[in-house]
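*** Protein under study ***
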Amino acid sequence: ENGRMEWLNAASSAHGIKVTLRSALDSQCGGMPTDGDTSDAMMIWMYALSLNIPSLEKERVAWQRVVKMDDPTRPLVGYNAELWDARKEEWRPLDLGVQAAAERGGSSLQEAWKA
């Protein structure tokens, strides 16, 4: 039950940024975003999800340093696509942690992204 509530809270809190990102993909990419564009948007959304997953604080702070984020609650401010590289070793623990939180909540990232 705790996993479900944690996930619902995270998903609800990150809903606004997900809507913004998906809208940007639709308008800037003519409704046909590349896989890379979608992946970049999902990374930002996943970071936003992590803000409400307390167990990921250490991983989140490490990622904030990597991408030189000044305001941890506003990942789009000062966003630099070159820094947000999913191949960086600091991304993997955050990525896996958010995926695990989704699973504990009875969902998946793909399912939640499309909802």
Q: What stands out?
A: The first helix runs from residue 2 to 13. DSSP finds six helices and no strands in the chain. The mean pLDDT is 94.
